[in-house]
């Protein structure tokens, strides 16, 4: 108010700017912006008033910082020196910040495809493996790309990967690469500017205000600056220098089998909790990342503002869970996973010195690779072993002599598949090595799949029908059934089950009900041709299956996944 009176006495005007001056956008900035919610509606007035913002903590959790001296001077619109105050960046609310982060990630692909100057491919048989090499030649001065034809994923310097010394020894799929974070960040900003920055829905940026200028959407740099005010740190100056070049992903094959596909009736205790994928990021400054990570997770909506993570002590390390993200700091690496078991597996393996780097199969499979590289991929021998075991299991039930001989004769040693990418003076050499026995096994499996397609199709259809009957019974019991299960005719009459499901099945479907209990069986109409396994489901919701040589399945058969 004092500044306003002094301005009026000095200039004889009620407002310290001319009509049309873009400084009128200050009106939208002087109001405190809460961490969540929309921006306050802009003031509609021909003679707006600007009031100074007192220093205050907008958020008790410390996520939002107090206004700096520069912010105060800008907010009060002090024009004593006769110069116009430049407009500040448009504020971004916490909700918009989440949208902005998503758009930043998607902007990686806004650069479109990157067409190399030349591409060379070669295939060779080297020992017991097939080697496939591809040389991607870029234009002079262009940075190498980890993924061919995608310009925004810019590779960093070649490195000797250190993440295998952190990943657990039971890792079956491992991917590591070197990234140039500053150049990727610049590419993301360029993509965001191209895409456009989200603005608050309550601010009309198309119609001019009375006595002021038409506000314009902020560019990417202005929006990032507003986000950084919420975060309390600079992305390019604080975050990126704290990150190392190496990034890796590790997971066991068992993770793919951890979710029951058809047995949704099984209770959680019946499904073993298995570790999932983890992200490993090398750090140049772990202490810096420790201090800024909770704030970033809170503003991204992963963790509650001001709420500390749930801490679990694991030997010399701490595992912290923030909502849907669990993290740990291990030897200058940030380990992040979707749950505690995933991160716990890495910490325990590291403390027991049972890491991927100590695994003989990992070391031997990558012996052909250069020590320094841009990227590498390792798929363990367990993939091939599981495939061979599945083929041999199927061979026991197959009556066709040709298929039986083909599958039972796959007596080969499981081996790992590997990949590496190297920088060849700005060009990138990609090389994949596949075990010859793995290709033979896939060829046998492909031939088996063609020959056995009618059986596989019949069994999948039977599974589908039984799952639909189970769902229909649950619905009928809670509605028309009044606590009792229904017959096939009743389910069809209530339009809970389509008659075509039964008519089109290669299995004989039988349903018996008794009050609040029911049993459904599916038996192949032509054993060995339309199916081999028989299926069973009851009020427990668990679907079971076994090869009964064409006879019905029972409640004593094992559940299927």
Q: Can you give a write-up of this model?
A:
With 561 residues, the chain is an alpha+beta fold. Helix content is 31%, strand content 19%. The chain has 15 helices and 16 strands. The protein has helices spanning 2-11, 69-76, 94-106, 181-195, 220-231, 235-242, 286-299, 340-351, 360-365, 381-397, 401-408, 436-451, 453-478, 488-493, 499-503, and strands at residues 118-126, 129-137, 173-178, 243-251, 278-283, 310-314, 317-322, 325-330, 333-337, 375-379, 417-424, 427-435, 507-514, 517-524, 534-538, 544-546. The protein has a twelve-stranded antiparallel β-sheet with strand order 1-2-12-11-10-3-4-5-9-8-7-6, with helices on both faces. Helix 10 packs antiparallel against helix 11. The longest helix is centred in the last third of the chain and has 26 residues, at 453-478. The radius of gyration is 32 Å and the shape is globular. 32% of the residues are buried.
């Amino acid at each position: 108010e004092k500044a306003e009176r002094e301005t009026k006495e000095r200039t004889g005007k009620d407002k310290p700017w001319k009509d049309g001056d873009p400084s009128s956008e200050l009106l939208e900035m002087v109001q405190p912006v809460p961490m969540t919610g929309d921006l306050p509606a802009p003031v509609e007035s021909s003679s707006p008033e600007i009031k100074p913002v007192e220093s205050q903590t907008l958020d008790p959790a410390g996520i939002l910082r107090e206004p700096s001296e520069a912010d105060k001077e800008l907010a009060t619109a002090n024009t004593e020196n006769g110069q116009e105050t430049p407009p500040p960046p448009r504020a971004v609310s916490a909700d918009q910040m989440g949208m902005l982060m998503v758009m930043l990630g998607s902007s990686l692909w806004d650069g479109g495809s990157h067409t190399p100057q030349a591409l060379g491919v070669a295939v060779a048989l080297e020992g017991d493996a097939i080697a496939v090499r591809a040389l991607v030649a870029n234009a002079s001065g262009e940075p190498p790309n980890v993924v061919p034809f995608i310009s925004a994923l810019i590779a960093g310097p070649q490195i000797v990967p250190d993440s295998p010394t952190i990943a657990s020894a039971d890792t079956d799929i491992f991917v590591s690469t070197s990234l140039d974070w500053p150049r990727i960040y610049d590419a993301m900003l360029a993509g965001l500017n191209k895409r456009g920055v989200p603005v608050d829905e309550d601010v009309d940026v198309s119609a001019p205000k009375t006595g002021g200028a038409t506000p314009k959407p902020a560019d990417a740099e202005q929006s990032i600056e507003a986000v950084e005010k919420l975060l309390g740190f600079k992305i390019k100056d604080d975050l990126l220098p704290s990150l190392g070049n190496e990034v890796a992903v590790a997971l066991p094959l068992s993770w793919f089998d951890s979710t029951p596909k058809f047995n949704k009736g099984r209770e959680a205790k019946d499904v073993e909790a298995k570790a999932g994928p983890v992200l490993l990021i090398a750090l140049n400054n772990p202490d810096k990342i420790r201090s800024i990570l909770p704030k970033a997770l809170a503003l991204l909506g992963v963790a509650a503002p001001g709420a500390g993570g749930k801490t679990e002590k694991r030997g010399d390390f701490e595992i912290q869970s923030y909502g849907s993200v669990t993290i740990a700091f291990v030897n200058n690496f940030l380990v992040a996973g979707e749950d505690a078991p995933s991160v716990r597996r890495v910490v325990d393996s590291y403390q027991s010195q049972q890491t991927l780097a100590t695994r003989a199969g990992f070391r031997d499979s990558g012996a052909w690779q250069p020590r320094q590289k841009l990227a590498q991929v390792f798929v363990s021998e367990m993939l091939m072993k599981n495939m061979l075991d599945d083929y041999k299991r199927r061979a026991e039930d197959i009556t066709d002599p040709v298929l039986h001989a083909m599958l039972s004769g796959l007596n080969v040693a499981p081996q790992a598949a590997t990949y590496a990418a190297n920088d060849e003076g700005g060009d990138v050499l990609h090389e994949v090595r596949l075990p010859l026995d793995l290709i033979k096994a896939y060829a046998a499996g492909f031939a088996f799949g063609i020959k056995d397609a009618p059986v596989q199709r019949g069994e999948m259809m039977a599974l589908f029908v039984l799952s639909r009957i189970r769902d229909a019974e649950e619905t009928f019991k809670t509605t028309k059934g009044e606590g009792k299960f229904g017959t096939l005719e009743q389910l069809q009459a209530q339009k809970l089950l389509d008659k075509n499901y039964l008519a089109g099945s290669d299995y004989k479907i039988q349903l018996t009900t008794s009050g609040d209990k029911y049993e459904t069986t599916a038996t192949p109409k032509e054993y060995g041709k339309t199916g081999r396994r028989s299926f069973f489901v009851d009020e427990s919701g668990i679907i079971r299956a076994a090869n009964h040589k064409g006879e019905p399945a029972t409640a004593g058969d094992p559940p299927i996944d």
